[in-house]
Design goal:
By secondary structure, the chain is mostly helical. The chain is built from 9 helices and no strands.
């Protein structure tokens, strides 16, 4: 009684047949490219079935990636590759890039006009203070009244009012 189920045996033999077909196809392509004498001279003195068995072992799994095999066959080196070299070339196959979809936003003229009107209203409502230094003067007054300001607030009003402070000091220094 066998412990292996029939479906597993069939699947295993199909996979073995597929890798064998792959190796045969690679050998045929290499013989066409390099010539039979030049390609097979690499394994001179060895039995061809043993060489192919080694190739099947090294290339195992590539039968599930025909794109990589096609890439390797299209990028064969100047001299016939070994099984390891062929697998290395196949591993350099770039990943397929998904098709890029071109997308352009659809412009809705009504929405664009509404947004432009909103911007125009906001700009119109934005009022510049009559005195651009009013905030700095307010901070100076508050510090003079004894309110504790942060360092950045103190630094802000002193920088903003530097000219004004310098003018006040020079006015105080001049005799009347």
């Amino acid at each position: 009684m066998s412990t292996t189920q029939p479906s597993q045996t069939t699947a295993d033999s199909d996979a073995a047949q597929t890798i064998a077909q792959l190796v045969d196809a690679v050998f045929s392509a290499c013989i066409l490219r390099y010539g039979q004498a030049y390609f097979l001279s690499r394994w001179e003195g060895l039995k061809l079935p043993a060489v192919k068995a080694d190739w099947r072992r090294v290339l195992e799994g590539l039968e599930r990636n025909p794109r990589a095999v096609r890439y390797a066959l299209a990028h064969l080196p100047a001299k016939p590759p070994t099984a390891s070299e062929f697998r290395q070339i196949a591993s350099e196959c770039p990943e397929p890039r998904p098709a890029c979809l071109s997308w352009e936003p659809k412009h809705d003229p009504a929405r664009i006009a509404a947004a432009q009107q909103q911007v125009a209203r906001a700009r119109a409502e934005q009022r510049m203070p009559a005195d651009p230094l009013a905030r700095a003067r307010d901070l100076r007054r508050r510090e003079g009244e004894g309110e504790r300001l942060s360092l950045s607030q103190k630094e802000y009003w002193r920088k903003a009012l530097a000219r004004e402070i310098a003018a006040e000091r020079s006015a105080q220094e001049q005799p009347r």
